[in-house]
Amino acid sequence: RPLPPRKPSADQKYKEFKVIAFYDEGQEHRAVSGTRGDCDVAGRLMRREAGRIHLDQADEKVGNVDGSPWIRNQVERQSLPLDALGLDFYHLGENVHKARRDIYGEDGEAGEQWAGDLLHTFKHEGYEAAWNKLLPWRLALRRGGKKRADQLLNYVSERRDMICYPAFQAKDWQIGSGPTEATCKTLTARLKGSGMRWDGDNAEAIMGLEAIEQSGQWDEYWRSELQNKALRSPGRFARPNRGFARDFCCVSRCGVRYMDRKAGTHGRARSSSEVSEKIAATSEGLARILWSRLN
């Protein structure tokens, strides 16, 4: 297939990428992917990757996310088989300290003590205990501080089902999304060199290559691509403009699944000679069908 026309320059637009990372507890196995598509595209990517790694067969399946509403919505919409979905503790801390700076100032000792006590309560006692501390704290503030306090209260109340740190720790589950945050940096590092400007499609393509590398599948991917190309090459022909047929072989790790459309039979070939013979026979049969339809 020919490459698309060369683009003259970068599109000069801000680009947001969404990163999905699956990993085991010891991070010995990872599956990383990313997209610059919208929330629905990212959701379908989650579902596809979850199916590819057979996530449903894992003993425990836990998600740690940054708290964006679209993530939770897509997890539910795509029916991901998670046992629990947690709010990354670091992102909770970011919002607590942002409220501290707005209300107590950058270096106020009282604010540091308040933030530390509140985060300790969230981490070790849970949402309800922290909420019971936030309500009287909010009432004691002056009018200007109450508006900022309301923002923090709204943030945690909207994510109350995801603030389960004592339960997570009791099961030895992680409460932070550190590996995913690190992946966000490494996956896009190649795109952020000094003076670099990227077109959106090209940036996403480079990020896709980096995702393969981050997933530890670089050699396997290219080995599979070369094998698949070699298996598809014999007897393959270009489709006519009025095309009546699609690609007629599907390559898998076990061999080539082939279909003789004229005879209506299916089979599986394993040796290279069998593969070549079956593909050639299928190609000849499809060519006859196409010729008869075109004439």
Please provide a written account of the structure:
With about 300 residues, this protein is mainly alpha-helical. It is built from eleven helices and seven strands. The strands form three sheets. The protein has a three-stranded antiparallel beta sheet with strand order 5-6-7, covered by helices on one side. Strands 1-2 form a two-stranded antiparallel sheet. A hairpin with a 6-residue loop joins strand 1 and strand 2. Helix 3 (about 90-105) runs antiparallel to helix 4, helix 3 packs antiparallel against helix 6 (about 145-155) and helix 8 (about 180-190) packs across helix 9 (about 200-215).
List the helices and strands and how they pair.
Blueprint: E1 18-23, E2 30-35, H1 39-52, E3 62-65, H2 69-77, E4 84-87, H3 89-104, H4 109-124, H5 127-139, H6 143-157, H7 165-170, H8 178-188, H9 200-214, H10 218-232, E5 249-252, E6 255-260, E7 265-269, H11 272-294
Parallel strand pairs: 3-4
Antiparallel strand pairs: 1-2, 5-6, 6-7
Helix pairs in contact: 1-2, 3-4, 3-6, 4-5, 5-6, 8-9
Low-confidence stretches: 236-276, 278-283, 285-295
Helicity level, as a percent range?
Answer: 40-55%
N-end to C-end Cα span: 27 Å
User: What characterizes the major β-sheet?
Assistant: 3 strands, antiparallel
Structural class: mainly alpha
Mean pLDDT: 80
Q: What gross morphology would you assign? A: globular
- How large is the radius of gyration? 27 Å
The run of helices and strands is EEHEHEHHHHHHHHEEEH
Record field, number of beta strands? 7
* SS summary, helix count: 11
Strands ordered across the widest β-sheet:
5-6-7
In percent terms, what proportion of residues is strand? 5-15%
